[in-house]
C-alpha cells in the first residue's frame, strides 16, 4: 500500500533509504535542498512513525581568536621560546620577557606554557649567577613535532576541521585536548554544538519497499485552486509553530545605552531637566567652584588628566564670581567659613583637564541660574588616571543630580534618591555618613542587590556647603549626588565587570537579556 507523505518527509526518507547509513541533518539539508528546520520537522515526523532513528551528539567547535591566528602563523608563544632555547641553550630568567618582546611574542604566556608543558625548567647556573631557563628532555622531544593543542590550532586555522572531535582520527586524545584548551582561550574559543543525524530503520525500509510518494502540498489556498477544483486533491501544509527555527537576531539596544536611557527617563519622570557640558573642563569648574582646595590630592597629576593643547581654558566672564570663589578659598569670604587659608592661584584654576566628575556640569548649571526651584541632572563621561584593568577603566560614565529648593534637607535627599533608584528597579536604599569637600552633611548611598544579596555603593551625596552655593549667588539649600553609571548597569545585567560593557563580545551582547 502506497503511503503519501508531505514532500519534505518523502525527500528525507528517500535520501536515508538511499544512503543506507547515518546522515547528519546538515548533510540531509544539502542533499535534499531543504532548509534545516524542514529537515528537522521531517525527521520528527518520520521518527514518530518508527521509520527512522535520530541521534544527537555533542561536538566542540573551535574558533580562532586574533592571537590564535598570529600563533598559527608564527607558532605559539611557547614554541617560539622553545626554538629560542634550542638556539641559545639557556636564557637568563630575567631576560626572557625582553627577548620575547624583541622577537615579537608574548613572553608571559610563553613562560607560563613552557613550564606547563614541562618543556623548560629554571636552573641555577653552576657558577652561581641568576636563574636560567633551560630546555628539558621533554622540551627536546617537543622540537620534533607539534603538541596536540598546536595541531588543533593549525588545522582549525587551515580550515581542515570544524570540530575538535574530528581530531580523534589522528590519534589525539580529544577530551584531554578540550580540557587543555579551556585554559587557552587566548588562542581558541570553544563552543559546544549539538549535531543531529538520522538513519533509516527496518520498518522504514519496509515502508519504502511497500511504496511511498510525495503528496502535492500547498501552503496557500489560491483562487486558481478553488476555480479548478484542484483543492480537493492537494494536501495543505500545516504550520508547526513549535519547530526549532533559526534564531532571528533583531537589532538590540546596547545594555549600557539602555541603562543611560532608563536613568534619563527616571530623572525626567521626577521632573528634572537635563544639563550637559564639555568633557574638557577647567580646574575652576571641576574643583575650585566646588571648594576643592588647590592642593587637594584629586588634583594631582597621577589622578587627573591634564591637557597639553589647550593647556588652559578661560575662566568665567564674571570677574566678581571668580573673586568670590577666590576669597572663599582664601578666608571664607562672605560665606561664614574660614576658607582653606592659602593663596588661591588663578593659574591653577585655568588649567585644562578632562573632567573627573559630572558634578562639574551640575555646578555650571547652578551658576547659570541659582534661583529655586530647580531640579537638574546630567549623564556624561568622566576621566580618571586609573590603572586600566577588568575592574577599572580610565574613562567611565557618571550621573549627577541637584535639587535647588528652599525646603531641601537631608530627609528630602533620602526621599529623592530612594525614589530615583526605585525607578531603576532597586527598592532598598541605605545611607552612610561620608565626606566630600563640597557637601555637608555628606552620605554614601548604597542599594540592595537581590542578585548579589548585598549592599552595593552607588553614589556620593549631600547638601552643598555654603562655600559652594554662596559665591554662585544661591541662597537656598542644594541637594547633590553623583556616581558611576556602569555599576548600576552591572547590577541590572548579568555581567560581573565593567569591561564586559565595553568589550565587543558579540555573543554576550546577543544573549544578555535586557528585560527584567
Ligand atoms: N562627585 C562625587 C564623585 O565623583 C560624587 C558626589 C556628587 C558627591 C555630588 C556628593 C555630591 O564621586
Topology:
Layout: E1 3-5, H1 7-19, E2 23-24, H2 25-32, H3 36-48, E3 52-64, H4 66-74, H5 77-88, E4 90-92, H6 96-103, H7 107-116, E5 120-123, E6 132-135, H8 137-142, H9 148-157, H10 174-182, E7 188-200, H11 202-210, E8 212-214, E9 217-218, H12 223-228, E10 235-236, H13 255-269, E11 273-274, E12 280-282, H14 283-286, H15 319-331, H16 346-350, E13 352-354, H17 359-368, E14 374-383, E15 395-404, H18 410-423, E16 429-436, E17 439-449, E18 454-464, H19 466-469, E19 478-484, H20 486-492, H21 498-502, H22 506-511
Parallel strand pairs: 1-8, 9-10, 11-14
Antiparallel strand pairs: 2-7, 3-7, 4-6, 5-6, 12-13, 14-15, 15-19, 16-17, 17-18, 18-19
Helix pairs in contact: 1-3, 2-3, 4-9, 5-7, 6-7
Bound molecules: phenylalanine (PHE).
Residues 357, 359, 400, 436, 439, 460-462, 480-483 line the site of phenylalanine (PHE).
Features:
516 residues; alpha+beta; seven-stranded mixed β-sheet; three-stranded antiparallel β-sheet; 22 helices; 19 strands; flat; binds phenylalanine
Amino acid at each position: 500500500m502506497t503511503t503519501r507523505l508531505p514532500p519534505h518527509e518523502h525527500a528525507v526518507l528517500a535520501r536515508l533509504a538511499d544512503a543506507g547509513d547515518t546522515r547528519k541533518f546538515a548533510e540531509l539539508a544539502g542533499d535534499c535542498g531543504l532548509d534545516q528546520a524542514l529537515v528537522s520537522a521531517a525527521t520528527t515526523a518520520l521518527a514518530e512513525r518508527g521509520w527512522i532513528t535520530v541521534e544527537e551528539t555533542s561536538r566542540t567547535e573551535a574558533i580562532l581568536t586574533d592571537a590564535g591566528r598570529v600563533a598559527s602563523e608564527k607558532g605559539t608563544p611557547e614554541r617560539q621560546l622553545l626554538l629560542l632555547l634550542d638556539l641559545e641553550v639557556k636564557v637568563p630568567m630575567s631576560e626572557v620577557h625582553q627577548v620575547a618582546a624583541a622577537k615579537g611574542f608574548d613572553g608571559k604566556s610563553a613562560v607560563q606554557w613552557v613550564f606547563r608543558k614541562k618543556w623548560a625548567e629554571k636552573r641555577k647556573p653552576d657558577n652561581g649567577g641568576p636563574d636560567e631557563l633551560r630546555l628539558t628532555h621533554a622540551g627536546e622531544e617537543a622540537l620534533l613535532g607539534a603538541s596536540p593543542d598546536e595541531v588543533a590550532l593549525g588545522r582549525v586555522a587551515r580550515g581542515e576541521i570544524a570540530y575538535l572531535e574530528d581530531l580523534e582520527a589522528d590519534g589525539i586524545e580529544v577530551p584531554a585536548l578540550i580540557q587543555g584548551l579551556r585554559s587557552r582561550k587566548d588562542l581558541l574559543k570553544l563552543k559546544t554544538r549539538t549535531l543531529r543525524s538520522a538513519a533509516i530503520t527496518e520498518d522504514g525500509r519496509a515502508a519504502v519497499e511497500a511504496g511511498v510518494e510525495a503528496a502535492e502540498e500547498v501552503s496557500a489556498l489560491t483562487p486558481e485552486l478553488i476555480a479548478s477544483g484542484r483543492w480537493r486533491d492537494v494536501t495543505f501544509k500545516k504550520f508547526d509553530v513549535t519547530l526549532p527555527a533559526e534564531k532571528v537576531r533583531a537589532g538590540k539596544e546596547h545594555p549600557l545605552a539602555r541603562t543611560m536611557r532608563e536613568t534619563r527617563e527616571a530623572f525626567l519622570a521626577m521632573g528634572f531637566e537635563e544639563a550637559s557640558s564639555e568633557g574638557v573642563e577647567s580646574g575652576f569648574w571641576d574643583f575650585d567652584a566646588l571648594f576643592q582646595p588647590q592642593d587637594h590630592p584629586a588634583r594631582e597629576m597621577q589622578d587627573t588628566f591634564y591637557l597639553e593643547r589647550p593647556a588652559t581654558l578661560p575662566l568665567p566672564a564674571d570677574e566678581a564670581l571668580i573673586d568670590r570663589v577666590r576669597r572663599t578659598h582664601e578666608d571664607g569670604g562672605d560665606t561664614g567659613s574660614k576658607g582653606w587659608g592659602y593663596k588661591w592661584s588663578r593659574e591653577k584654576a585655568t588649567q585644562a583637564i578632562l573632567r573627573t566628575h559630572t558634578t562639574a556640569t551640575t555646578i555650571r548649571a547652578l551658576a547659570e541660574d541659582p534661583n529655586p526651584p530647580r531640579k537638574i541632572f546630567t549623564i556624561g563621561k568622566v576621566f580618571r588616571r586609573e590603572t586600566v584593568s577588568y575592574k577599572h577603566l580610565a574613562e567611565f560614565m557618571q550621573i549627577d543630580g541637584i535639587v535647588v529648593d528652599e525646603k531641601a534637607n537631608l530627609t528630602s535627599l533620602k526621599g529623592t534618591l530612594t525614589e530615583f533608584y526605585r525607578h531603576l528597579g532597586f527598592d532598598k536604599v541605605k545611607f552612610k555618613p561620608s565626606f566630600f569637600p563640597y557637601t555637608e552633611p555628606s552620605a554614601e548611598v548604597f542599594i540592595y542587590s537581590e542578585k548579589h544579596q548585598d549592599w552595593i555603593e552607588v553614589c556620593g551625596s549631600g547638601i552643598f556647603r555654603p562655600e559652594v552655593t554662596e559665591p554662585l549667588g544661591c541662597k537656598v539649600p542644594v541637594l547633590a549626588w553623583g556616581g558611576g553609571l556602569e555599576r548600576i548597569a552591572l547590577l541590572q545585567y548579568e555581567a560581573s565587570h565593567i569591561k564586559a560593557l565595553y568589550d565587543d563580545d558579540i555573543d554576550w551582547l546577543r544573549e544578555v537579556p535586557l528585560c527584567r
